[in-house]
């Protein structure tokens, strides 16, 4: 019998048996798929022994505290031996402890509902909105607004609320009750304005859309604090306070999707905390446990929670939802240790410092290469938009970002890119290195991109 941990055999097994996410497998008939076998800090090693600097935290903004943390593995192992699971109809110690510590970081919130993925966490919020509509007006106030270019997950309901056409292609028909709001990218203002000479129309458009749909039918809006896979798009500072004001005016629940930005990515515990407002619901996953265990959270105010409390004889007046692995104790155990690491190693401060340094280095590349039309981001969450011409802002073809990312990977640095999300704007490079990044790490990332652009 072959050694199951043999990396070469693992490549063969992967090639013959595994089906990868968002990957065309035809090239694997001639070439080997990438298979990673080990990670330490910021670096991972593949089955052939080649080492890479990971500038995307596990490919999708997840491994926030870096690879190979023994204390994370120990926390999970110790908890699983003690109690691995019981359905979340009952409580468990790490879930109760993490909920308390999490709420301490989120003034204005009071309740944590556990599940196991960002898509699922968002579905819970949608179900809360839909149930409240039935509680209060026979289900009429059920519609949910989402924003063009935002991504909220892979289920049919999550895709129904996603503003990325290629991500959604071939998965329709989608669910009714969702409406799309214009995006907030100043570089490509959907209203043809320039920041500083506008009225933040991208935010005020929410009121127009609510009136169009009917204020008595709109129950919620979901927004990423910073659009992630849609191009790393931070809103203008005035954006969210205006959104909050409109939501209050029309009794619309404001749901912020922190699946990417949550737990330190922007230098704050949460992305929304960079702006002057408080949401009604916040969802999170990915960096909550830095990929050491599966966990997601749907966090609400006490006002929302209280509406689900009633006489037990009422068979429908409670949150009638369940998530099987919301009862797994590994997630909150890992999340507790993850939060300890972020606090004790002052990683929020490091993100702020290193994020500013990284953005400065990326602007240096913009000065050097005309192909870079825009650099934008917050903390260790940065993006670079590539164009054929800075005046017309015509985007480069997706093959260009593919070549740049491929060149970087050949030279030992893994960067991100907008991957077949839109018909036209797959022209963004994305950088989200772990919160432990140093100047040397940032320099290595920027040098790899510099070399790739020069080769292009």
Would you spell out the secondary-structure blueprint of this structure?
Blueprint: H1 7-17, E1 36-40, E2 43-46, E3 51-54, H2 57-61, H3 70-82, H4 93-104, E4 111-115, H5 118-137, E5 143-147, H6 156-160, H7 165-168, E6 178-181, H8 201-213, E7 218-223, H9 239-249, E8 253-257, E9 281-284, E10 296-300, H10 302-306, H11 330-344, H12 347-368, E11 372-377, E12 382-386, H13 398-410, E13 413-414, E14 416-417, E15 428-431, H14 439-455
Helix pairs in contact: 3-11, 4-11, 8-9, 12-14, 13-14
Protein traits:
14 helices, 14% strand, Aspartate Aminotransferase, domain 2, EC 2.6.1.77, pyridoxal phosphate, transferase
Beta content comes to 5-15%
CATH class category of the largest domain: Alpha Beta
In which order are the strands of the major sheet placed?
Answer: 4-10-9-8-7-5-6
Q: Please identify which CATH superfamily of the largest domain we are dealing with.
A: Type I PLP-dependent aspartate aminotransferase-like (Major domain)
> Globular, elongated, flat, extended or rod-shaped: what is the shape?
globular
Largest sheet features = 7 strands, mixed
Distance between the termini: 47 Å
Number of strand elements: 15
The CATH topology of the largest domain is what?
A: Aspartate Aminotransferase, domain 2
Mean of the pLDDT scores? 96
Runs with pLDDT <50, length 5+?
Answer: none
The rounded Rg comes to 22 Å
Order of helices and strands: HEEEHHHEHEHHEHEHEEEHHHEEHEEEH
Number of contiguous helices: 14
Cofactor: pyridoxal 5'-phosphate
Pathway: Organosulfur degradation; alkanesulfonate degradation
Keywords: Aminotransferase, Pyridoxal phosphate, Pyruvate, Transferase
Protein name: Taurine--pyruvate aminotransferase
């Amino acid at each position: 019998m072959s050694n199951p941990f043999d990396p070469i055999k693992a490549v063969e097994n992967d090639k013959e048996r595994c089906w990868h996410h968002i990957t065309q497998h035809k090239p694997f008939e001639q070439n080997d798929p990438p298979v990673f076998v080990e990670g330490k800090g910021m670096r991972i090693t593949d089955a052939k022994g080649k080492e890479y600097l990971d500038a995307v935290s596990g490919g999708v903004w997840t491994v926030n505290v870096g690879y190979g943390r023994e204390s994370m593995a120990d926390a999970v192992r110790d908890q699983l031996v003690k109690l691995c699971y019981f359905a979340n109809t009952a409580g468990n110690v790490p879930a109760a402890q993490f909920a308390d510590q999490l709420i301490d970081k989120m003034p204005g919130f009071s309740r944590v509902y556990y599940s196991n993925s960002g898509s699922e966490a968002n579905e819970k919020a949608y179900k809360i909105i839909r149930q409240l509509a039935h509680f209060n007006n026979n289900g009429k106030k059920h519609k949910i607004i989402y924003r063009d270019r935002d991504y909220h997950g892979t289920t049919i309901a999550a895709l129904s609320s996603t503003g990325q056409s290629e991500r959604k292609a071939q998965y329709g028909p989608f669910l009714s009750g969702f409406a799309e709001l214009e995006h907030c990218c100043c570089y490509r203002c959907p209203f043809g304005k320039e920041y500083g000479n506008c009225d933040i129309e991208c935010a005020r458009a929410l009121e127009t859309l609510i009136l169009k749909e009917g204020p008595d039918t709109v129950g919620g809006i979901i927004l990423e604090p910073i659009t992630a896979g849609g191009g790393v798009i931070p809103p203008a500072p005035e954006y969210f306070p205006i959104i909050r004001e409109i939501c209050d005016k029309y009794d619309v629940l404001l749901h912020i999707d922190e699946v990417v930005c949550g737990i330190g990515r922007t230098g704050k515990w949460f992305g929304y905390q960079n702006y002057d407002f408080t949401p009604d619901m916040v969802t999170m996953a990915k960096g909550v446990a830095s990929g050491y265990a599966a966990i997601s959270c749907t966090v609400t105010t006490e006002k929302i929670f209280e509406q689900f409390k009633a006489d037990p004889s009422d068979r429908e007046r409670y949150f009638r939802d369940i998530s099987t692995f919301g009862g797994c104790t590994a997630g909150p155990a890992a999340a507790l240790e993850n939060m300890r690491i972020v606090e004790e190693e002052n990683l929020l401060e490091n993100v702020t410092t290193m994020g500013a340094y990284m953005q400065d280095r990326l602007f240096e590349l913009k000065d050097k290469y005309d192909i870079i039309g825009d650099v934008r981001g917050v903390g260790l969450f940065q993006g670079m938009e590539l164009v054929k011409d800075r005046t017309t802002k015509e985007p480069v073809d997706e093959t260009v970002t593919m070549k740049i990312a491929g060149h970087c990977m050949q030279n030992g640095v893994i960067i991100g890119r907008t991957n077949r999300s839109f018909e036209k704007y797959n022209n963004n490079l994305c950088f989200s290195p772990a919160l432990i990044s140093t100047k040397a790490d940032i320099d290595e990332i920027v040098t790899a991109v510099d070399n790739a652009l020069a080769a292009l």
